[in-house]
Amino acid sequence: MQNTDTLEQDMPQIIKTIGENGEEIFMKLQEIVSVNGKDYALLSIVEEDTLPNSDSEEDELIIMKMNKSDDECTFEIIEDDDEFNLVAQAITDDDEEED
User: Fold this and answer.
1) Which range marks the domain in which residue 27 is found?
2) Into how many domains does the chain fold?
3) What burial letters (b/e) apply to 40-79, b meaning 16+ CB within 10 Å?
4) Among residues 33, 48, 62, 64, which one has the fewest Cβ atoms lying within 10 Å of its Cβ?
5) How far is CA 49 from CA 15, 37, 78, in A?
6) pTM of this prediction?
7) SS3 of 93, please?
């Protein structure tokens, strides 16, 4: 994944990114979680034609590492299984605390 842009400030945090094959992908930022001093984004993919109504509870969730520099933010796939499991556990723990 590469550079991202926020579409509109008034809408839910919808992010446009470019996939590995050059296609545009729209994702909704569900939550940001910090683990060991690093930020991770919990995202769900939304279809371009449903952007104004992108509040589906059945969305598949994706966890990606956030890399921030100046005014840009990039998302990176978490390739390390231990790192991914640590972040997933932190998200699960946060959800259990909210219930």
Assistant:
1) 4-98
2) 1
3) bbbbbebeeeebeebeeeeeeebbbbbeeeeeebebeebe
4) 48
5) 14, 36, 28
6) 0.70
7) helix
